[in-house]
Amino acid sequence: MKQEKHKKSLLGRLQRTPHWKKEEFTEIEYEPTSVKELLTEMKDISELIIDLAYSALLFNSTEIAEEVKFLEVRMDKMNYDIRIMAMMAARTKEDAEQLSGILQIAQAAEKISNTAGDIILLMELKPKGLLPRILKDADEQLFRIVVSANSQACAKMIGSLKIESETGMRVIAIRRKNCWIYNPQSDNTIQSKDTLIVKGTNEGYNDLNEFLLGKQEVLD
Asked: By the 8 A CB rule, do 35 and 85 touch?
């Protein structure tokens, strides 16, 4: 239960950017939990962290970069928990063979988070103009949209707006004043002056941008 609460505090919740260095130097304590919960959270983080890393680099956002570093540390600790659980659970050679697959999945997820950390290091090189040119040729791109007070999206949940099904765009983060919502869920609401970081095609972006700017009343 304690693990589940921590998971909810990371994704889909309004939060200030965490202090990742404090988390990094916190003593690791093994907390019994289910492998399913750990792998689910690792999957969620691995799906999100690369997009956040590119967003940090593209928009030169130190806040998003801090979140990436925090999630990278979090992933390391979950991988540690899974290794401990595997060693405690293995009683026979057959047990060890079955658990090896779980360890490989966890290791792959951690490699993804480490790659995101490497992307963040590029911010020190300040490659202005380089990343936008590279991403321009990608099938899916990252965009930033500020919600107008005139938009019909204000005070409505993401799920009810059917943003992804109508435009193909996925909202990966919301900036609200000095706080962030990473990996917003269908029950998260959109408010006036929110800054949305979205991922998708140019066509989808144009439709969503017109809607969030209040220039069209519905998504179609």
From this structure: yes
What is the Cα–Cα distance from 180 to 127, expressed in whole angstroms?
A: 25
Q: Mind listing the pLDDT tens digit for each residue in 98-157?
A: 888 889 999 999 999 999 999 888 877 766 666 666 666 677 888 999 999 999 999 999
From the number of C-beta atoms within 10 Å of its C-beta (0-12, 13-18, 19+), residue 83 rates as: middle
Residue with tokens 């921590």: 6
Secondary structure letter of residue 102 according to DSSP: H
Domains annotated on the chain, with CATH: 2-125 (1.20.58.220), 138-212 (3.30.70.1450)
Helix axes 93-121, 62-89, angle to 10 degrees: 170
What residues contact residue 94 under an 8 Å CB cut-off, 6+ apart?
none
The pTM of the full predicted model, rounded to 2 decimals, is 0.76
Specify the DSSP element, H or E, that contains 4. helix 2-10
Q: List, as one string, the DSSP characters of 116-166.
A: HHHHHHGGGG--TTHHHHHHTTSSSEEEEEEPPTT-TTTTEEHHHHTHHHH
Please tell me the distance from the alpha carbon of residue 136 to that of residue 138, in angstroms, as a whole number: 6
| pLDDT over 70 percentage in the chain | 81
